[in-house]
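#struct-help
A.M.: can someone run this one for me? Single chain, 243 residues.
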Amino acid sequence: MHSNSQKQERLKLWYLKRFNLFKSLPPEDIETLAKISYMINVKQREPIYFPGETANTIYTIKSGLVKISKLSPDGKEIILVILSQGEIFGEMTIMGEEFRDVEAKAMEDTLLCVSKKDDFLNILRKNPKFSFSITKLISFRLKQIEAKLENLLFKDVPTRLAETLIQLSQQYGIATARGAKFKARFTHQDLANLIGSTRETVSSFLAAWKKDGIIDMEGRKIVLLNLDKLHQLAKSLPKNIPT
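D.P.: on it. C-alpha cells below:
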C-alpha cells in the first residue's frame, strides 16, 4: 500500500513538472501541490461535475479530453471549450465562485489531478508569477467564451463549422500524407454542440464537404484534406442557412 502511494506521488510530480502552466513554480511547491492533490480516472462520457454543485476543487488534466458546457435557454448543450493534457479547469472557484455554473464531462477516458481550493490558493499566494499565469488563463477563457457567443450571434453555420474544424485541427490534428487528421474522435453531435447547431445540419454540411473533397473520414476520425478551402468557407457568409 505504501509502495502504491509513493508511486502515485511520483506520477503526479512527473506530470506537474512537464506542464507549462506550472513551470513558474519552484520545485518545492510543485512537490507540495503533488502531495496535497489526488488523482482520479474518469470514463468516457462520465460527468465530472454539474451546474449547481459546490465549487471547491480545481482539476488538472493528466491525459484525456474534457468538455466544459452549458445549456442554452432552449435546453441545447453548448460546448464552451474542450480541454486536453496540461490544462486546468474549475478555476473560477479561486475567483469566488461558490457553485458551478457549467458542466464538465470526459470526452474520452481521462486522468485528472484534483486539488482543493484552499490548498491551491495557498500555492498562489506564495507565488506571484504562478498567480499571474492563472489570472491570465481565466481572462483568456472568458475572452474565448465571449468570442464564441459573438460567433453564435453573427456567423452562420457553415462559417462556424469551418472555423471549428480548423481550430480543432490546430489543437488535436496530426499531419498525414492526406491532410490533418484528428487524434481524437469528435461526433457530429459534439460539433453541433460546439457551434450551436443541430446534428442533422452538421451532418449535411460534412457530407457535402466530403463529396467536394474538402474533408474525409478515417474510421471515426475526421481528416481535413483541403485546409485552403476550409479557410475560404470560414470567411464566407452565405445567407439563409438553417441552424
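A.M.: thanks! The first strand starts at residue 38 and ends at 42.
D.P.: also worth noting: Residues 166 and 230 are 7 Å apart (CA to CA).
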